[in-house]
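Notes from hallway chat w/ T.B., transcribed later so I don't forget. T.B. wanted the structure written out for a chain they're using in a teaching module, and asked if we could keep both sequence and structure tokens in one place. Agreed to drop them here.
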Amino acid sequence: MNTDWSVEIQKVFKSFSYAITGLAHATKRERNLRIHLTITVLVCILGFYFSISVTKWLIILLAIGGVISLELVNTALERVVDLVTSDYQPLAKQAKDVAAGAVLVYAIIAVIIGILIFLPEIIQRLT
């Protein structure tokens, strides 16, 4: 027997399945996302190796989540632009370039965060 709440729960689970399908699709087809995910694994290994604090983990996770989320949004925007036009359009190129620029800015910030968190740990181990 379907009650109102069970229907809503089914809808929520269905929306999660769409999101997981999107993640899987982007991971298979987007080189830059695979690069970000590989770096994520390496950063997590470093985090465990250096036993970084919970606060540092939170900062790292926000940086990782931001980069990956922006990469996914960039991919979605590229798909929509490609759907709208297959011809070269200056505004379409600008939209793609600006979205890619947003990923680049956040990725640079994430690298700086990583350096600020891990460089002191590395220096401490070396001395």
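Follow-up for T.B.: The mean pLDDT is 95. Might be a good example for the class.
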